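Note to self: keep these together.
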Amino acid sequence: MSEAQSLLSLFEKPYSEVTTPRANESIVFALEERPVVVTRVGTRPAITLPKRPDADPSRLGTATVVPRGSAFSFFVSTHRRAAKDLCDAFMKTTGVQDLVQFAARVKGVVNESLFIYALSFVILHKKELRNFRLPSLVEVFPQKFVPVEHLIKSQQEAVRRDENEETQIVIEHGPDFSSSAIKPEHRVAYWREDYGMNVHHWHWHLVYPIEMDLIRDRKGEIFFYMHQQMIARYDMERLSVGLRRVEKLENWRIPIPDGYFSKLTVNNSGRAWGTRQDNTYLKDFRRNDFGLQPLDITELEVWRSRLLDAIHQGYMKNPNGDTIPLSDDVTSGKRGVDILGDTLEADADLSPHYQFYGDLHNMCHVLISFSHDNDNAHKEELGVLGDPATSMRDPVFYRLHKFIDDVFQAYKLTQRPYTMEDLSMPGVVMNQVSVTSKREINKLTTGWSTRDFEASRGIDFSSPKPVILRLTHLDSVPFNYHIEVTNTEPNPKVVTVRIFLAPKHNGSGAEMPFMEQRILWAEMDKFNHTLNPGKNQIVRSSKDSSITNPTDFTFRDLDSRPMTPGTEATEFDFCGCGWPQHLLLPRGKPEGMAYQLFYMITDFEKDKVEQAQGARSCANAVSFCGVLDAKFPDSRPMGFPFDRRPPPVLLDAGVLTTADYARLDNIMMQDLTITFLADKLVK
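Structure:
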């Protein structure tokens, strides 16, 4: 049994004792002081865990303050401190065996979700473990993705089954998901509750944590950009099903119209996430069970006011009274949007003045999560908005982040418009562009697909056979971009190709002016290419997108892929973080829906970023997840060229629509149709 398999097995059955057989009963841990008698067929000799004085709860700092069996929320400052203490303890281990022994000893005394978070963190950030891959969170915590009644029914069936029964137990979920069609918001439940998107959100916050003593290049800016792109994609999905774009949650004194009932459980014992009724009011926070100080809604409003004042004044102040300018036109130091992101999220270690500008984003999550039981009178658990792995299921997540994005957009609109020099690239002429899919030109299709996971890796069903979880999700037929471009100069030229997608019409069916469409543009791909002199034909597969993570490893995948410490793995630097490949395209409509693709070529000499020697890259999802221990590989502001107002005049004519950018030789637009095949499985 390899050390890697032992480490991987610690992700299995997080709510069971560490001595519970794992890896399809091929691994058993035994405590040195309590030997295990192996009785199950097929189980190998136990791995003995020696006593570890450093695993005593008194040596773990605040890591034990989060109760076992309850929710762990990285939005709560006391939980973040607990996570940091446990991560620090894990990081002090030397080698895989030491980590396995220490983590296995600690497992029984810390919160289960906190344990998985910290173990994932150390695998991502401990250098000797970077070729290890994380198993899908769906298999670790099935109860965060599937309604509890499905799991209970399967557990009952597993207990009743004859042990010689060969047929697998399969839990099917979707496409009806957890709600009915009575309320309009439920039309996009299939998207909000998508497993891949929620895993991405959890993984992104693992890669870009706050207050963990990690230096991440442009962390505040990527917080802005990744969440802005989520809202743009959510709006496209809403337009696909006949809903208006999401409205921001800016008035915290009126009821929240839409409730949310996740039907999920926090743990295996059936403890449910808190629910929110329709028309629930936000209330002042008065709970004393999370180690937080009382917080009034008024304080949120004061923080918001101070942030908006700073934006419009063009600077922030630090505790010494020093002025910190907010501008994206900088040649050194942090961009204003990066500073604003660290302040708004908020990261107490990076905010210029945490006490003054506050903790707006995190505490908005907390107050909404406890709106059903703000004072613990009913001893209810927090709502799903409190956990990055579940928060995107709730419609109010998008209303909150639309508000957050509007604060960022208020800042972006204070920046100077881009100029002709910023937008153009002499010597490059785009001749024609198109997309092809199954021999169709500029016609793309979406539909339903399914993915199987082993729920029995995360939950003990007392079944000798795997219990399969089959999830239905939106998917699309792969496609290729075709770009014909001419390099008019005599020498080869390295360029950056940028591709964005947006709906052609708004909710009223009208074509959109530039400023209305500006924040609907979703990045589809960004890549480098060398143009030879003369005509060049570029073909790029949708599977190579710069925003997506095509592979979500299951335990079975990892069992079949040997992992050894110390070697570099090209498949996993930040791979595992990224938008799900199956949600690259919006749904579209059964009758077809009009979209536009925006293609732009820029000069790599201006775009490139000097990296430290030996810095590694990852081909997956760099636009959303960056590069491990390296600078973000694009010097332009994230979202360029749609992050600012357009120039009032371009080539002697006004800029009214995005199509006016296509006057430039290095920019082209193309109409296309996306058709949703409601009754077909897409493979």
